[in-house]
Design goal:
- Helices cover 31% and strands 20% of the residues.
- It has twelve helices and 20 strands.
- The radius of gyration is 21 Å and the shape is globular.
- It starts with 13 loop residues before the first strand and ends in a 5-residue tail after the last strand.
Length: 389
Amino acid sequence: MPRKPRPAPGRQGRVKGHNQNEISLARILLATACPGSPGLWTGSFTFSVLEMLPFQIERIYLDEKAEKDSVSETVLKTLPNIPVETVQDKRSLIKHFSSMPDPIGIGKKHLLVTHFYGRRLKPCPGTSNHICCGYYVINAVTNCPMDCSYCVLQGYLNNPFLTFYTNWDDLLQEINDFLSIDRQSLSRLGTGELSDSLALESIFPFSQFLIPFFAERDNGILELKTKSANVDPLLPLEHRGRTVVSWSLNPPKMIAREERRTARLEERISAARKCQEKGYPLGFHFDPLIYHEGWEEGYQKTVHQLFKEIDPRRVLWISLGGFRYPPDLKAIAQERFPKTEVFLGELFPGRDAKFRYLREIRTEMYQKMVGWLKEVDPNLFVYLCMESK
């Protein structure tokens, strides 16, 4: 029978070497424990959270090694009515779920709360001889409750669960050490590689760890990349312009057909406007660009709709990336999404073995996108992502 662990006192982890030699994680967690704390989100994460979520959590698996961590305590308080099972061997649990039909879909309904062992900060896994932006990945959460048909995580992760890692004191120390190595250069770090940066914010306020942390550093920029509209917890935070909130965008037709459980285009743009009003720098990612019937009209209208609401002077960067996928993704995605159309075009393996549109098609899409964007503001910074040199 599942058993709920006893409430345990939270750990007060500390990061040494900055801000009078320490930053207390307990201060960041004050938002949920002590409403009204200055500079922190003061909303409640416990009332009707399940009604707010666009996805369903059926069970929480709590690694016994993480049982006494503050993150675990906060998650359990936020989801008080979800069954909790304490596990001793998460590898056996992962193996069991991985043998089920559609482990990816099932895993999106189950939350694993555990420790992370190893490095949490890694360079973006760019491809040799392809353009890479030099991004560093913060491994804070793995997997995503959203369900995009083209998502590379379907064939990439060996753990099907939504997974929270609780040892945030170790993570912040690792980031601090990384930024302390070379204080002259500016590093761009983000959480949007192995999950959506904001999709799980209602369960645990990850932004309250990272945004105040980066606000006190001059040589690091945090990017929160999302397809959600869940930005309210970010709005009262002191960011000092060191956090960029960015959105992945596609035309409404593609969002409805291929990006399940994500915010609609107008919701994403509205959320971006909220962040703009609070002084956050913004980013946008037209990635993947999907070649389909009517793509020109769809993407041009999307650009126009975006800049009806957004001041281009507040946009730090815009990336473009044609749809591409590793060889094993197509079979997985088509089995999970029989009606998907993203794989119907003519895509061919490139030098990195990923399937891509013909170079002529990609070039046409990039040229037209850049043209539409530069019509809005010729000073917009636009770059290509994972594209051949």
